[in-house]
Amino acid sequence: MFAPATAPLTDxxxxxxxxxxxLGAVVFAAIGFVAVWQGFGLAxxxxxAHALRVLVAVAPLFVCGLVLVWPRWSPLRAVVGLIxxxxxxxxxxxxxxxxxxxxxxxxRNAAETRDWYKANxxxxxxxxxxxxxxxxxxxxxxxxxxxLTNDLQADYDKWARETADEIISRxxxxxxxxxxxxxxxxxxxxLLREAHPxxxxxxxxxxxxxxxxxxxxxxxxLEKLKPxxxxxxxxxxxxxxxxxxxxxxxxxxxxxxxxxxxxSSVDSIVANNLAPKAGEGxxxxxxxxxxxxxxxxxxxxxxxxxxxxxxxxxxxxxxxDTAVSEAVAHFGAGDYHLAFGVxxxxxVAWSATAAILGPSEEKSLTEFRxxxxxxxxxxxxxxKPVEPPETAPPPRTKP
Length: 399
Fold this sequence. Notes:
Order of helices and strands: HHHHHHHHHHHHHHHH
Number of domains: 3
Shape: rod-shaped
Number of strands: 0
């Protein structure tokens, strides 16, 4: 007799991972994740989700879900489910949003940082702004966890407004000659403008108002000086230079004010000294040369060789006209050598200035000197040699 055939041995149904069981594990993981996710949200920690944190939080839930749907573990299902939920909660709390070193913020770190900002944003002072550099980390935190820091926006706006009010108040209280004090406000002003653009217009208006008042005060000092008061110009130069060193964007305005005052002074001096006074001869060339040297010696912000070119050009013209008049007078008297001496001395004194002023001035000097040099040489060649006078011989003595 033949023995009956036996069926191949297979795993019992309860020991295999069937699709229904896999689906059950997935459903448990999904339900558990939603519970953890929304539970933290209800606890005040926001509902911000990140791929890495979601993946790590779902992993223990899925593993425990597989255990739950396995028949052999039926007595311990409650304990396993609780372990999965606790593991997911811990992962959701401590896992950073990215493995990159630049973005390591976990929910725990983000919550601690949020609480720190809540405490420190209550301190709205310029010193706190400078110390915190405008709270640049807050922008990154709000990008990473927008729902967690949603209520922080109102605190931040309030802090920015109050800090801006303090900076504006300091601008108004700062004396117009306290350039270092205003310079010190430059950094917090820049920080707050970058950190809170809504305050930028108010801060810029306060800064410009102070600059306008300070510039007006410095330019008014020049306006009060008498024309040609070179000593007064030099006495007030330190304040103008200090202002420009502290606030470089005031340089153009100060330079323009100095240039206009010098131009006005030269105009006044020329108008008062161009025509000879009663009983006096014509104004000497040395006077205009002296005024020119005094202008070059001014303690101006402009140290370029062509500084005050308009005033110096006007002085050159007056001095040149004076030299021409003197040379013509000597020439008319037949003293060609003196006429050439005037032309030569004038050319030497003003040659450097003419080179700065331009080709026209250089040409006028060259022609002036060349003309009278020609006549001086011509007169020297045409002059007859002077013979010594004849003298009578001494009388003879009688023998």
